[in-house]
Amino acid sequence: MRHRIGHKKLNRTSEHRKALIKNMLNSLVKYEQITTTLPKAKVLRPEAEKIITIGKKNTLANTKRLVSKLQNIQTVNKIRKTLSKRYETRKGGYTRIIKAGYRYGDNAPMAIIEFIDRDVEAKKVDRKKTKTENKSKEQTPAQKTA
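-> structure tokens emitted (146 positions)
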């Protein structure tokens, strides 16, 4: 019987698996939606639920737990300030997994994991603005004053 075997190994060593989950959690919090393989998404989901639940209780001890788990202060601040406020009335179920077909190279099942009621603009955090976007943004304040 498989009592007390609580996680999938994902064909990785324990250190590699912990680093993978930490990096995926940071990306999920930053962009609020990521595309990955289905087994990785299924492993990531309970971890994401736990960090949101920890972030909802605004104490110093919980902040230190999040910093220890994620090792990124910007991610911890987003959890405490934005996501905990968004989900303060929700008891659980902060994420959803959507199956997204199969990867071209190796036919691995792909999935999209995202937060419920996510901010669509969070996906564009690191994207550089194109020249047309810069020109349109420069013209709008001038048009308002004219």
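The two ends are 75 Å apart (CA to CA).
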